[in-house]
Design a protein that fits this description.
The protein has 343 residues and is α/β, with parallel strands linked by helices. It has 16 helices and twelve strands.
């Protein structure tokens, strides 16, 4: 235990260069913990969302969806509580009902900036974030899901609905247009990273879409960084019902390349019965760890107590998750990197 405690003493300025790839609540939750250990964080975020307030702004203004980007900026923010509350505020009346102020701020910055990534950079300055947030691409992309029955639907927001109606697994997903160009800064962040993290987050709609952008998989493959997939705690209604840990890994390899990462971090925390029962009503359950099949895929599984129940939902405890990732990094990374953690 003493050895683990000393891994926390490194000043954040000298923390590892981290490329965290994903989207949705999973990525923003992870970032809240990581910023306590390193200032050198690059969050690389999917832009395939087309639902909710983000979808409205995307449709009305012709801009990439701001929601996941805004959530990551909020997670990394170092601002006064009033500004944080303002970013979270959602309008409850009129044409803006359900829309968040943070989304509108990013939309306004996009209107006065030469590009969407420049608007994100300006928002990052306003919020004084730790690290940086990068859209994986600035192309106008949509997500298409092809199901095992041969049917297909276009639009992230309707994939879950169709899957539940058809009661059929997703065969694969793709971006339209296919193979959009990655933001150069995102590829650079991956190339320079010492630690690359995939997930946690929705498998087909938050994690995999990033890997369908031109150059991302190649950059990860060529990187000498430590690479970890952080698996979700629960299966997801309308997306990964009955999936095991190895099913998640296999789906990622199918959409990218076999052996894209050698390590998978899973939660060993017990899910309380009351929470499990609520999830069961949705057709969701704790993800089963089938370690032998993971091993046949060439992936070592590391199990740690990582989850908690927050507002009735089973989620990663962001502080525990970040701590275990950094401990794992300090134990497994090259000694020249690990020595930096033994100050």
């Amino acid at each position: 235990m003493a050895r683990r405690q000393e891994t926390y003493r490194i000043p954040r300025t000298y923390g590892p260069k981290i490329a965290a790839i994903g989207g949705g609540h999973g990525l923003s939750n992870l970032l809240r913990g990581l910023k306590e250990y390193s200032r050198n964080i690059s969050a690389i975020v999917t832009v395939a969302d087309d639902g909710g307030g983000s979808g409205m702004l995307r449709h009305d203004l012709g801009m990439p969806p701001p929601g996941d980007i805004r959530a990551c900026c909020e997670a990394l923010a170092n601002t006064e509580s009033v500004l944080k509350d303002l970013m979270h505020y959602r309008f409850t009346e009129g044409a803006l009902t359900g829309q968040s102020f943070g989304n509108l701020l990013l939309a306004a910055l996009n209107g006065i900036s030469p590009s969407f990534d420049a608007a994100v950079a300006r928002m990052s300055e306003v919020l004084a974030i730790t690290g940086r947030v990068l859209p994986v691409t600035t192309a106008d992309v949509k997500l298409e899901a092809i199901f095992e029955n041969g049917a297909s639907v276009i639009g992230e927001s309707i994939i879950s609905k169709y899957k539940k109606q058809a009661d059929c697994r997703i065969s694969h997903v793709r971006l339209l247009p296919e193979h959009p160009q990655a933001l150069p800064a995102a590829l650079k962040a991956i190339r320079e990273a010492e630690l690359i993290l995939l997930g946690p987050g929705s498998l087909y709609t938050s994690v995999i879409p990033n890997l369908l952008v031109e150059g991302v998989v190649r950059a990860i493959q060529r990187s000498k960084a430590m690479k970890i997939y952080v698996c979700n705690v629960m299966t997801e209604d309308g997306e990964t019902e009955n999936y095991t840990v190895s099913d998640h890994i296999a789906a990622i390899f199918q959409h990218s390349a076999p052996g894209l990462f050698p390590l998978c971090l899973v939660s060993s925390s017990r899910v309380p019965k009351a929470a499990a029962d609520r999830y069961a009503l949705e057709g969701a359950a704790p993800i089963l760890l089938d370690a032998k099949r993971c091993q046949t895929l060439g992936v070592e599984v590391v199990s740690r107590p990582l989850s908690t129940v927050r507002e009735g939902r089973v989620v990663h405890h962001f502080q525990r998750l970040a701590r275990e990732i950094l401990v794992l990094y300090s134990e497994r990374a090259f000694r020249v990197a690990g020595d930096r953690f033994r100050a």
